[in-house]
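User: Quick sanity check before I run a bigger batch. Here is a single chain. Can you write out its predicted 3D structure?
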Amino acid sequence: MIFSPEQIEEIESLAGINYTIKQMAMYFDIPLFDLQRQFDDKTSEFRFHYDRGRLIAQAQIDMKVLESAKGGNTTAQQQIEKIREARKFENTRDQLLYGD
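Assistant: Done. Predicted structure follows.
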């Protein structure tokens, strides 16, 4: 399945706000089965941009929380610590499962 640059941008944006595969299939007027198959293929262009969109959106949020934490916001400081612990766990898990 080939996507235009505009569609790729939309895939990333929709994934960043947690649209489901079903919602995206409706949005792009693609049969759900076809898009689900693309999502299930971890090497597909769709899956890459879906995952990238989620990552970018989360990174943008995390960076704003970090800036607030640096500015002295104690709630943001607590949130950053939770984010760090979660990332540390994920990184350790991935190292154990997949190696370096």
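Residues 5-98 form one domain.

User: Great, the batch can go ahead then.
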